Amino acid sequence: MRLRKSNKEVHFNASNILDISDGEQSTVAHQSRQSSDDEFVVAAQQQLDDEDEHDVVPNDLSDFETQKGKKSESKRKRNRRSWVPTNAANSLSKVQPYPTDPSQKWTRTYVGPVKRWTRLLYLVDYWFGDMENRREIFNGFMNLWFNFQLIPPKLPLGSRQLELARNGWMPDDFAQDMEDKFRSWYLRYLSMTTTPQVPTVIDKTKAFRWFLPQTKSDMGVLLGHVSNQKEYRIKQGESIPFSDCGIPIEDEGNHKVQSGGWLLDVGGIVLSMGWAPIKGEVDQFLAMAIIPYADQAYYKNLDDIPKGSELKEGNIQIWKFEAEKDHKGVLRPAHSSPKLAHALCFHWGRALRMQWCPVPLSTDDNIALIAALCGDGTLRVIKITLGTENDGDGTFEELQEPMATIKPPKEYTLEINCFTWLNMNRIAVALSDGSVVVWSISPCLPLMRHPVHGSPIMDIVSGYPSSPFIIATMPMGGMFTLTDLNRPTAEKTYHGNPVVSLQPNTLVWNDHLRGFASIWPTSFPGTSTISFVHSRVFPLSRHICTVEGQTMCLAFGTCHPYLLAGSSDGSVWALNVLRKMSSHRDKTHKLKIFQHEYCAPRPLGTETDNDERNSRRGTCRILHGFLPQVNIHPLGVRVAKESRVKRAKKEKAGKGKAKKADDGPVSDDSEREDDDNFTMVPGPITIHEPLTRITALSWNPNAEFSWWAAAAMGSGLVRVTDVGIEDDQEGSHEHRGKSESVDPGDATAGDIDGLDDEDEMGEESDADINMMLYD
Asked: Domains of the chain: which residue ranges?
């Protein structure tokens, strides 16, 4: 092997060298590991031979010194942005002592092959290295969603894009295989069960009297364009249809105006919500766990607060939303009002959380499983019937015994905090002591229990369907952790940045990106940060977006990579996480879908003559039609602004010295003005009404309706919206052509908003790496 003169004193380790996109060569220890990532391991000799092809031998020593100086300067620039320990050769062969120097902040950061400036070609290999055809599948994702950076596109029935969105990383026969297994498992359950589910049909009056929240008064809602809003009165169970532009439809019989969704009044606070996974072009069902307003009302006397043991009546409402097909073959919301199709009533306490079984079935099977965590600390699996024959007032059932009952271990003060489905017969429950228990539904028994955290677990999410037994857990206080239930004692990792989480429903999974989105620590209480972590590079987090207020709930699309975020200020945001992760230099945007604001009514006895027509439930205002905003990191903006201010101060100081030498002393009014204009705080902190917040979000998991989204507000309103955008609105031919011309190999991924591209990327940023595009 021939070495260059500049490399004669460079010693290479005999181990392999990872081909990293930014030109760095990280040396690993002598290990032999059989994995799918071997294809991007390059031999040291081959890499040196490639470098020799571009080697230029200098004519004399002066040219050599000049060239060597340039290379040293370039190397210093690269080392300025990424630091590699000097003992990298032995970092993986032995455990290094934990540094005690407080200035070494890198102990809580990610040090690995994937960087923020890693090119998309290598990023796809690192993220999806266990899939053989990963580049082909991911290229289809790029062609389908990259140019729709705000909301997902509407896909016509029977199209190739719709099948790609439905299957994702799974084979084409996966859905049918899971459906067949679900049917056979259910038949085996019926033959083995000894305590079947016992429902009792009750009338509507009894259901609303004892179980369902009931409000007698109506609510005032301000809807329409911001410059011409009109007040509408809505009661519990009523709905207001609106067009694609968000304007309420006065005449429901006018089919010339295309319906864009509904605004529904459920008369209570929605704690959890989810669409039923159903196959086929059928009407959609939305299940909601609803509690009365009194459960979260303000009490001056703490003795008047209702005790948890007294709140025994709970319910889960399932609403039916009809759909109709337009001339383009796209399913749209119908003009007819949604109906309460099913109501599950029980005496097990309030329903705190609920989730559908993720395996979809057709309505002909009349089988659907839903798991509900109730106020008594017990998780119950309930079998319901989703038939299309209930066109009246719906079916009201009082349940005495569920299909399966999952109780926490008999230990002192031990409770079930959250749960997640692994498949149709496995559920993982997270306990208040920080442990995770895997349960079997049929037969109903625990299979394993594994300690994960030292504090109560607030959220647990499974990677179904591509990685069903990989779970992420968010503790109340501690490290965000990823555990493989196949080998829980060996396969486990966590992110080194500790978090404090008190809000549920802020951890979600996306199977197309095969990663998790969750809330992240922020230094400013007026904003909340949302980050993305991939399951294969879990310790590395990437900033997604920052919303005003506190993040109350998140929702990731099942058939697309779009995220919904609900905030405490009543706003709902949407963005394309695929574009955010795969685009490094392009500016990404986020869109505020709507803004909800609640005004509480006057206290009883203080009404005036002008307030006689005001509702006792208060008044809401919903604004829509917001312009997209640049999705940037506020920390990067503040750092860039601080740099500009310091640079301006230095320039003024230099001018001031020159002027002082000529004309005398200079006033520092301009410097004070800069100090007044510059602030590290993005803006004032606004405290909103508690019922203004967004309580739950949900994307429709069915591919034919995957652009339908539901958002529940604290005031008791639920907005179901057809968020999708048609191809002709974005220019389908133009955008498809641009999308097919995207070169993912030349793209980069990460988030360095507010930093200089030249400083961050270095000289290696202009290298051309091509990636084959597949039709």
From this structure: 5-57+66-92, 408-502
